[in-house]
Amino acid sequence: MMTFDLVLPTLVRACEAQPGFSDLERACAVRDLRGRVRLVVAPGARQASADVEVLVRGLEQALDAQLGRYFAAPILTTVRADEAGRLAREVLHASRPWDTASYEDPATGRQIDVAPGRWRVLERRLSKEVWLARAPSKPPWPLIPDVPSIVTFYSFKGGVGRTTALASCAWQLAREGRRVAAIDLDLEAPGLGALLGAETDRGVLDAIVDHLATGDVDIDGLVAPAQALGVEDAARVDVLPAGRLGVGYVEKLARLDFAAVGPWETDAMTPVEAALRALLRVIKKKLRPDAILLDARAGLHDLAGLSLHGLAHVDVLVTRASEQAHQGFDLTVQALGLRKPAAELRSVVVHSFAPSKSAPALRAAEREQMLQRSYESFDDYVYTAYTEDAPALEDETAAHFPWMISQDPDLERFASISAVKDKLLSEEYQALKRRIDALCRPEQPDGDDEEQE
């Protein structure tokens, strides 16, 4: 039976086996939103038109037989002078090199990597582009002196203490006299505003939908102090809640568009990304924070991917020692490795819900397990860039090193954040904040301090 996962390898194998295929200059696999594939080819300089027609007919028969309904005929060629030829050339121009094209040899079971250079691919997706893209990450501005760092707090699974860690970091920064902007980007399950005691007339969602319609951002009515931190500290923490919950909130949420702006513009900025970048620039200019903390949506949500891969200078990855969490963490690191080279990746792993210090044996065993699993993920997807001198397992300055936050029943349920102040300012949270501070140290200016777009 043909399945989604088998389509592309089967396509490559069928094409590579076809006589005359190796003479083509280019071949592009185009996969549509339903998972069906179409083939676009560009003949080689020495291929006659009649030979190309014979090759295309043979390919169509082979692909129809092997892929069934997953194959969408006809095969497009660039040699034609009609609309089909123009479309073929446009597709090839929009596609990207497919250097990982491969298939399994049915006779031996060996993985066959095809020669690089000929194959290209174009994937049509409704969403999740930000999780699959390979273009380098570009925050709204470079991390240089006198500009706020942007720190994303992310977790693959919810309920692991992500928002609590953000609140602790914001509180510690405020106690040091620094200004903070805390932004709730968990738009589908918001809670940061309530946690920090900030109530506003409008929210982040309102700013996004207004920008979608007008191209402008206005933060009036969008910002409130973190009253739950006490008068003095609250004045230094500006909170931007998600918005007022109600049917109207859902109406606005339904209008977010994470798809790219055109059928072939997979690397183009989405409308939501453009709105969030504009919002961050206004916050930087009007609120003048020392740090901007983003509470990201959990899981593989587009907003989560955008927060991690598109907006942040520093990524705080909050996870716990469970198999579900490990699998999600592994995927998160893999996606980060595609967008952020090892030398540029600024991230810290938070091992939450760790066993208490009162159970030293259990704590040590779980720490070792978490450290090893985290190192393996980074070694597979990030540290491969190191030809030598890769980070050591116990290197506390390395991206993989997990910072432990002990499980505390008082932090799992509390009426007011002020009631657990001592817990949120514990030595473990202070150590985590010091590590985040170290990662937020500005880069040396290279003469180009313009904001990135």
TrEMBL record:
Domain CobQ/CobB/MinD/ParA nucleotide binding: 152-275
Top-level taxon of the source organism: Bacteria
Protein name: CobQ/CobB/MinD/ParA nucleotide binding domain-containing protein
Gene3D superfamilies: P-loop containing nucleotide triphosphate hydrolases (3.40.50.300)
Organism listed in the record: Sorangium cellulosum (Polyangium cellulosum)
Pfam family name, one: CbiA
PANTHER family for the chain: P-LOOP CONTAINING NUCLEOSIDE TRIPHOSPHATE HYDROLASE (PTHR13696), PARA FAMILY PROTEIN CT_582 (PTHR13696:SF52)
